[in-house]
Amino acid sequence: MSAGVDELVAWLSAARVHRVVELALPCALWSLVRLPEDAGPLALLDRAVRGSPYATTARVALAPRFTLSAGRLASSARAARRMPWDDAACPPRLVADAETLLTDLRGEAPAEARIVGCPLALVERLLRAAAGSVPDAAGCGPYACGFVGFVGDGAAHFVESLHGLPVRPREDAPDLALFFADAVLVTDDADATTAKLSLVGRGASHEAARADADALEARIRALLAPGPWCAPREARAPEAAAPRVVSGYSAASYAALVARAKESIAAGEVFQLCVTHTLSVEPRPREPAALYEALRAANPAPFSSYLRLGGVHVVSSSPERFLRVTREGAVQARPIKGTRPRGATAEDDALLAEELAASEKDGAENDMIVDLLRNDLARVSVPGSVRVRERRVVEPHARVHQLVSTIESRLLPGRGPVDLLRAAFPPGSMTGAPKVRAVELLAELEPRERGVYAGAIGYLDASGALDTSVAIRTFVLTRGACTFGVGGGVVHDSEPLAEWQETLDKARALVAALEDYFGLPVGWEHRP
Questions:
Q1: Percent helix, strand and coil across the chain, each rounded to 5?
Q2: Given 196, 262, 337, 506, the catalytic residue
Q3: Which end of the chain offers a freer environment for a tag, N or C, measured as fewer CB atoms within 10 Å?
Q4: In the annotation, is 337 catalytic?
């Protein structure tokens, strides 16, 4: 590691002062996504569905201390670093072949350091340095200090040995982007206009740490001063051209893609593949915060989130928890496999839910991913602690019914949130079984990399806690484009055209949000 990283580790490990302040907000907590761009990076973990037993608080992280973004280098000539659980004969090729940009935001003149090596190892080192920043009895819940952001689908190269993958077009976003926050607003209700502000001040002495906490609190209060940004968004003037969603597939060409996936299944290479495609939105929405507001209204979800960092905006209403671990080491995964649309009437809705519950094909998809995740969790869990607490539960969401299972375990002593991520990433519900071969086959089948889509969004707390959602029902806005992905699990019994219809069902919520945002119907265009 560079001297700059060593300095940062020492700073994170130095004297610390934690305080909790009650703040009155100028608008609902979730509306802080409207803060102007010059307020800097921010992250909202919205938990937009009230009463959900799986997502119980809303949080906004502001005023990051530093950001960390990572991507694969073009060259793979460097020797790979082997992870502890990898076969020594087959180490991940690119785990040491990555470049991380670390931007220190503490001073007036940010210092940049480019570090070559495993970005997850760097995240782990910095989290260990920050451990103990917030007392256990602080009452701020599971995320009060630490990293928040996304781990994109491409980060699979840092945890698995993937061989001979073709070079594909990439999204204009890093494989991983996180920022470290010492200022986190917390509330049980995202519509609330009051919140607790958890602050960590740092310095060479306790006096310096107190002064740092004072300065950080003053900065947050200044950011939250009422202004034009607090006002609800106004109705947008219609665009000159009607908005459209552009797909590289028609129903027939997507059915052909599914048929190719079924050939790999029939050949015995895999049992299941999650085949996806990426859609582009034209024109690119100019106001990501307003798009989030529209998506939140169209598709409230227990793992809604909004990220703004590194030139990327992530606008998400995910229904799916990927991984959670408490600071005590209790692990939970809740994979989704199996989808039906909501019915137009209560009777139709109940029939669709019953159909999903009785479906052998969807049940088989779900069971395969449950088994995959049980194996993933077992790599870092106490032997015998992995258990399936719920299996094939039909869970209603705003636009679809989903078939969900819950797997729980307990982390081995000495293991932490980064170990859990390494063991289970990428999400099995978005890849297939067995996972490594599924990822390799999907790279051959899908013409472009998924980018943020199908990765994970959430936090890694300095206390050892982690909570992440699967990046589905998610818009990704870069400087030049707005995209979202949809897909579904393919098994031996899959009907290709039915798989196409499932992707349309999943896209419905995002298209509804676009229609609200633009104030116009959204067209669909196929561009091969």
A1: 30, 30, 40
A2: 337
A3: C
A4: yes
